[in-house]
């Protein structure tokens, strides 16, 4: 399997190469040169497999010769053995059409664990072979940071520097990052928004002064290996609901577009997905892009769903590239214009290519609270604000009643207990395995929203190339 950049000028890499590289050196994101595809019979044969074995079947075509099947199986067994539910990502029915796919049974109570537990093991495996050191630099709007830190804390040959917007993540999200006191973990709270933090991370990957000294790697969903691992749970849910004979729709609370793009990948591989509903909060750049062709960033408005408080969705570039004809030079020019002006229009080809599978919805705070209350009173389910945004969009989709709609439940409700209690009157409790979170010591550094200050902090603590 060979991977190419969305911007056309970076060297093609194998799976090991893209896992360690993260972002392409031309600023683009890596994608497979062509999509692997399963037949209906091959998909049907996956029904009933344990999650780790299903993961091997779905991911093996992407891994190629970088890992043997037995090596991949051992890594999947180790990664998913840490989950609190035997099904890893259990599916739960709400009514005759609506379903929840619970993705929060990992160590940090969020969907990011499903991919990052595996990604940490992939890093360790590949770095042991090469005897290199990796400096991971990431930005988080809440859940990526804690999941990534948990996955790599204490591992040899890895340092992680995680940026989060000061005061714009929940107290549980912050503490899940800042109470991990391993020597290879560095938490940085910056002034500004997630978009500011993400822009700094992307700049580090393009900064010769940094890349010449350090092997910079990524854990955000710009890293293809992370996104690949998320494809598996679309197969898991659809198979339980009758795939490949029966089509399924998914509603995905969306910020950086990685989670929903994994659904797009699953569809390219042959999974019968009728529709992917992109559910945004009032930071609605993706809804405007998909419904009107207007990809223009505004100011980030803080909400009770902070992981979606994003106005620049990195993974959207992957869809624009693939759906728009895979023209790397045109994509590079289009993104250069966006990076200069924070505004662009989708081409007709991009809009038409996306419209085959995607719809979108903008959910405000009242609608979000309404969905939390409905889940609680009508179904006996307590859900978090992000999941509520997806559920409201699912219930308002207008899809035929014979098509099951799966909403991705992306975080445990106790991570956002204030918002949940305000909407439902129920204060959710943290599971016992993280119950002492508020008694743990915190450690993090506060920095201004200034690239030079952040780069200097990292350069002063990271391990340079040998």
Number of DSSP strand runs: 15
Strand order of the largest sheet: 3-4-14-9-10-13
**Regarding CATH, which class of the domain at 91-106 and 225-424?**
Alpha Beta
Strand content: 5-15%
Helix content: 40-55%
The whole-angstrom Rg is: 20 Å
Q: Which word captures the global form?
A: globular
CATH topology of the domain at 91-106 and 225-424: Rossmann fold
CATH architecture of the domain at 91-106 and 225-424: 3-Layer(aba) Sandwich
Largest beta-sheet characterization: 6 strands, mixed
Head-to-tail CA distance between termini:
29 Å
User: Unreliable segments (pLDDT under 50, ≥5 consecutive)?
Assistant: none
Instruction: Give the rounded overall mean pLDDT.
Output: 95
Structural class by SSE content = alpha/beta
Our count of helices gives 19
